[in-house]
């Protein structure tokens, strides 16, 4: 008997649910094709499903025909992307997660105070590129505590920091402490502004690691928050694997394993989690339970043009 313990919460967060439903509502209201700049969320299955229904995912706006309905992904975009869309006359629906938009607003507010911005995040991530491009001023990207030591701002007494939303309080604590130690005058948002979903899912994995022998994280390789969930499992001494779906399961992983913790990144649908449970049944009898955890009830409003779609 293999005991399978489900993390709570797991899978879709409110920002991801909203972004996916924006594409679905747009397809229903305007009809296909709907063009989406970048993957709407970082999950291969979600993107493929929307593609079959008429969504076309592009890297840049110049791939979109004139006048075609355009959606910006949940990760947000730079100001220049918004300007190019206006110049080309593209009708745009913005699916940026409201928590990402809040970080953009904070960055602009700090820049308006004449401050240089330190952005704690991952280089190359779509959200980070969008955030840097939303702030009219100097932005320094730091990824590690070590980066803080080599930071060379022009106005060290006029600094502020903001963070990528898919990092948790725990992920950023050390970097923010290093920033405050080196630049005592630095200011930043309240810790409550950290994305609730990231923090909750990471805490659920910490709780899970205390209760199981091995951890499976359902999510795509390009999902920052899914990768972090796997890393946390490993940091807590448990074998941990990031899998797209049940097809990635390896029988050898479960030799001598009595219990498996199962979670999913914020952009992974619940059907994939249930598919993994079915996949585990190929190896023998399975008993499923759910860990006690936070019940999320966050909901975000839809853009006005889709509010009644």
From TrEMBL:
Its cofactor is [4Fe-4S] cluster. [4Fe-4S] cluster binds at residues 13, 97, 195. HAMAP family: IspH. It comes from Limobrevibacterium gyesilva. Pfam families: LYTB. Its EC number is 1.17.7.4. Belongs to the IspH family. The active site is at 127 (proton donor). (2E)-4-hydroxy-3-methylbut-2-enyl diphosphate binds at residues 42, 75, 125, 165, 223-225, 267. InterPro entries: LytB/IspH (IPR003451). Binds 1 [4Fe-4S] cluster per subunit. Pathway: Isoprenoid biosynthesis; isopentenyl diphosphate biosynthesis via DXP pathway; isopentenyl diphosphate from 1-deoxy-D-xylulose 5-phosphate: step 6/6; Isoprenoid biosynthesis; dimethylallyl diphosphate biosynthesis; dimethylallyl diphosphate from (2E)-4-hydroxy-3-methylbutenyl diphosphate: step 1/1. One of its GO terms (molecular function) is metal ion binding. It catalyses: isopentenyl diphosphate + 2 oxidized [2Fe-2S]-[ferredoxin] + H2O = (2E)-4-hydroxy-3-methylbut-2-enyl diphosphate + 2 reduced [2Fe-2S]-[ferredoxin] + 2 H(+); dimethylallyl diphosphate + 2 oxidized [2Fe-2S]-[ferredoxin] + H2O = (2E)-4-hydroxy-3-methylbut-2-enyl diphosphate + 2 reduced [2Fe-2S]-[ferredoxin] + 2 H(+). Keywords: 4Fe-4S, Iron, Iron-sulfur, Isoprene biosynthesis, Metal-binding, Oxidoreductase. This is 4-hydroxy-3-methylbut-2-enyl diphosphate reductase. One of its GO terms (biological process) is terpenoid biosynthetic process. The lineage of its organism: Bacteria, Pseudomonadati, Pseudomonadota, Alphaproteobacteria, Acetobacterales. NCBIfam families: ispH_lytB, PRK01045.1-2, PRK01045.1-4.
